[in-house]
């Protein structure tokens, strides 16, 4: 049912959702959505033109006033309906994630498990309190601060957690009365866009509230430029690379347009001298190799107290060596394929350069196209790219430290600041150290990979810093504030 519902008049082409209609590209162009394991065709996707994008923006602009005016419980009911339908289709979404993005079954089900919760959080937003009353120095005056929807949100989402991160890019904004134009990654147009569009259409969302425009890699810049420069787009929502995020942020600054950003990370986990080594190994293995390290929250740097270092390295390497790359449709898969050859070669190059500069491969270290072996590096120094740039692949580094002060200094030695973890048997010690960790999210006795839909998800520095994802942050990001004062009785004027 899902597969056929959004196909065009050409039975093998998957259409875009614009103003409630499933449409081909205006010039008939398509691009191929390929399985990362064997390069086979997953789907042929409509490749939008500038005219198609304009039509989507027009639809969102026209639909926005009526959508914002809809009763809040009516909006909430649609999100609840979407959550219900998603539960019915969860296995179909999971299979699509496996085929399109190389997700293992476990990762696909993990991603699907957070979607209903997120939709329920969005359902609660329409009735959330967003106004304030302030006192006045002037007798008889009342000050009200009110918020209204910003208007139309342009959303650009990534391929690594395409289902959840695409939803997060727009769902809170829509719940607050905005409409959206979503552009998913060219590597995940189904799971990051068209399947979501079908879900929202079937849930009963009005035409134009969510529009999904798909493009090939060649068309991505056109969409980004339009979202930045078109005044009908009121807010830009972007999750992706720091490089692209910097360009979009610079463009938005030039036209005074708000932008929500979630970018890369070079995340560190600190294993203190009182930590349970076996638990620390398990937490950091999960953090480093979940979805073969293709997560912004992945644990790229493991910092271990010197008293535990040798034992930790031995146990961590032994566990890592047990997991070899396997096809993602195999139930026991942990290390699946890299999303594309371009990224595979980048990982290979980073590891090779690190070794040439003196790093040591404890296990792994080689590409087995389309896979990369799970890899552990030691003797990585701060002057190496392997220390400073995110791998976005199944590679992590282990570095010793001697004091808590040194551990925090090493953890904070990064332009990024997304997430971090501290593993210790002394929770108070961990919490106090977390307050000195220069990252937006720090998890004591958990891995760096963690998110709760209702909590503020954000990073510092090159990890974004452009707002906080989650319901409360969405109110700041996707609504505009007005101070309205009312003088209820005459007051004396100075002249």
Which helices and strands, and how do they pair?
Elements: H1 2-5, E1 13-14, E2 16-18, E3 21-23, E4 30-34, E5 41-46, H2 50-69, H3 72-101, H4 105-124, E6 132-134, E7 141-149, E8 152-156, H5 162-175, E9 179-183, H6 190-203, E10 210-212, H7 220-229, E11 235-239, H8 242-254, E12 259-262, E13 267-271, H9 277-289, E14 299-305, H10 306-321, H11 341-356, E15 360-363, E16 367-368, E17 371-372, E18 375-378, H12 385-388, E19 395-401, H13 404-411, E20 416-417, E21 419-423, H14 427-434, E22 441-444, E23 460-461, H15 471-478, E24 479-487
Parallel strand pairs: 1-5, 8-9, 8-11, 9-10, 11-12, 13-14, 13-21, 14-19, 18-19, 21-22
Antiparallel strand pairs: 2-3, 4-5, 6-7, 7-24, 15-18, 16-17, 20-23
Helix pairs in contact: 3-4, 3-6, 4-5, 5-6, 9-10
Give an overview of the whole structure.
- The chain is globular.
- The protein starts with a helix and ends in an 8-residue tail after the last strand.
- The longest helix is centred in the first third of the chain and has 30 residues, at 72-101.
- A 7-stranded mixed sheet has the order 15-18-19-14-13-21-22, sandwiched between helices. Strands 10-9-8-11-12 form a 5-stranded parallel sheet, sandwiched between helices. The chain has a 3-stranded mixed sheet with strand order 1-5-4, with no helix packed on it.
- 40% of the residues lie in helices and 21% in strands.
- It is of the alpha/beta class.
- Residues 1-5 have low confidence and may be disordered.
- The chain has 15 helices and 24 strands.
- Strand 11 (235-239), helix 8 (242-254) and strand 12 (259-262) form a beta-alpha-beta unit.
- It has helices at residues 2-5, 50-69, 72-101, 105-124, 162-175, 190-203, 220-229, 242-254, 277-289, 306-321, 341-356, 385-388, 404-411, 427-434, 471-478, and strands spanning 13-14, 16-18, 21-23, 30-34, 41-46, 132-134, 141-149, 152-156, 179-183, 210-212, 235-239, 259-262, 267-271, 299-305, 360-363, 367-368, 371-372, 375-378, 395-401, 416-417, 419-423, 441-444, 460-461, 479-487.
